[in-house]
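Example record for the data management plan.
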Amino acid sequence: MTSTATTDLCDAHERAVHVLALPWLDLGRRTAFHGQVATIKAFEDNSRVREAVAEPGRGRVLVVDGGGSMARAMLGDLLAAKAVENGWEGIVIVGAIRDSAAIAQLDLGVKALGRCPRKTEKLGDGRRDVVLEIAGVVVRPGQWLYADADGVIVSDTALH
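Corresponding structural encoding:
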């Protein structure tokens, strides 16, 4: 089986991978994870995150573009626990989480830019299964995401 380490994948597939070059924090118990991408774009409203994690994850990774906001947390312990229960492999958030001590105990990969104790609004805003642009990289539903302590990469095809 091929290594899923981001460094090895970058070396072996230099033209096929794109690095999401942001200062990610490892906040879940799993620091290395991979899977097909599902996407959400929402600003300070995690209604769509709640919807997604309530559905079967089937080993996918949820990528949430929260616009980089650190003012409200897009994920808390209850939604993270629901993601584990429903078979999500990981969640990557361009923004903040809360309940980080509890999330660190869950068998889930979680990467985010930081922490914030304030919950989000619940207005039903946001869009699912949309093309995102993160750190200058286009991220599409169905792509493959690989994450570990060295970073986060995406590819149009499975590399493992």
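Summary line stored alongside the record: The chain has one domain: 6-155.
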